[in-house]
């Protein structure tokens, strides 16, 4: 990947690279995949036309690389809870309160790989010198439990992601993207936390922020169709060849989500989490108020 050389040259370089790598017809595909290995195969298939280090492989986190061990705190739990806000006695402010509850669940909970070879596949991509990163809808408030669970599951994106600078020196960067919804994002050690904002626009903002040209091709794997569509629209407009996959491995788990069990788990654990917060303070999480049913009367 190359640094932009000032705005004008950068724009020309972007157009040139987009044109040279994609002659007339864009060789781009969107599909479903039930294994992460598809990302490796897709990246390899692009090396006929591009160097590995000019190919960016983007993984989503929740329900793509890792999944919560409990129903509580999972994406499906959050989505289910969000639908309850229209019920009688609940208010729109339910969503921020839910995020607090999810933060507490992240702090206390743990994650498992979606497939046993998840970390090995990521390592293989890195060893073959592809650029590999995580692009997650999680917000930066969840930074610590997120990195803790990545570490625990042997996932390390600090090498061979999009570098912060020419020396491939990694550190954290927090900013408010112009195209976003006024929510701060964090890029650290190859993990980009975009707080529920448009993943295509956010990737674009990160490359601009770091003065990098677009990679010559992008491979993405994400369990959310919306995220895939967003990335597809951004890459399509820019003419970047891509292979985008909606990851389906966790579909049966999310479809069979047990709302009763999740509610029961929250009921069991919420008083204890509240006590921990009262004693130790809100350093690691803030409990919703009231915690029994966040933002409902
Ligand atoms: Mg996901």
Quick summary of this structure?
The chain has helices at about 5-20, 35-45, 75-85, 95-110, 120-125, 145-150, 200-210, 225-240, 250-255, 260-280; strands at about 30-35, 55-60, 65-70, 110-115, 130-135, 175, 185-190, 190-195, 215-220, 240-245.
Structure description:
This protein is of the alpha/beta class and 297 residues long. It folds into two domains: 204 residues, Rossmann fold (3-Layer(aba) Sandwich); 63 residues, no CATH class. 41% of the residues lie in helices and 15% in strands. It has ten helices and ten strands. The strands form two sheets. An eight-stranded mixed β-sheet has the order 1-10-9-2-5-8-7-6, sandwiched between helices. The chain has a two-stranded antiparallel ribbon with strand order 3-4. Helix 8 links the parallel strand 9 and strand 10. Helix 7 packs across helix 8. About 7% of the residues have low confidence. Bound molecules: magnesium ion (MG).
């Amino acid at each position: 990947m190359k640094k932009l050389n000032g705005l004008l040259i950068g724009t020309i370089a972007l157009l040139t690279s987009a044109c040279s790598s994609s002659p007339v017809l864009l060789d781009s595909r969107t599909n479903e995949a039930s294994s992460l290995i598809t990302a490796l195969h897709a990246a390899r298939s692009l090396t006929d036309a591009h160097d590995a280090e000019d190919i960016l492989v983007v993984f989503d986190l929740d329900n793509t690389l890792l999944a919560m061990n409990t129903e509580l705190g999972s994406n499906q739990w959050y989505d289910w809870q969000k639908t309850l806000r229209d019920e009688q006695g609940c208010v729109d402010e339910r969503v921020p309160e839910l995020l607090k509850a999810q933060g507490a669940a992240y702090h206390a909970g743990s994650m498992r790989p979606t497939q046993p070879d998840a970390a090995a596949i990521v390592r293989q991509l890195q060893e073959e010198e592809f650029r590999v990163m995580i692009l997650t809808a999680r917000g930066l408030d969840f930074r610590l439990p997120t990195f803790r669970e990545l570490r625990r599951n042997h996932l390390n994106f600090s090498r061979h992601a999009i570098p912060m600078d020419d020396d491939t020196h990694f550190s954290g960067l927090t900013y408010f993207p112009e195209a976003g919804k006024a929510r701060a994002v964090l890029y650290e050690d190859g993990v980009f936390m975009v707080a529920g904002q448009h993943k295509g626009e956010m990737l674009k903002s990160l490359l601009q922020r770091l003065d990098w040209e677009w990679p010559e091709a992008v491979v993405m794997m994400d369990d959310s169709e919306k995220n895939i569509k967003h990335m597809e629209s951004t890459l399509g407009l820019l003419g970047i060849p891509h292979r985008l996959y909606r990851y389906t491995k966790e579909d049966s788990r999310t479809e069979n989500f047990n709302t009763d069990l999740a509610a029961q788990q929250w009921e069991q654990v919420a008083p204890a989490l509240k006590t921990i917060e009262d004693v130790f303070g809100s350093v690691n999480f803030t409990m919703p108020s009231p915690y029994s049913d966040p933002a409902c009367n």
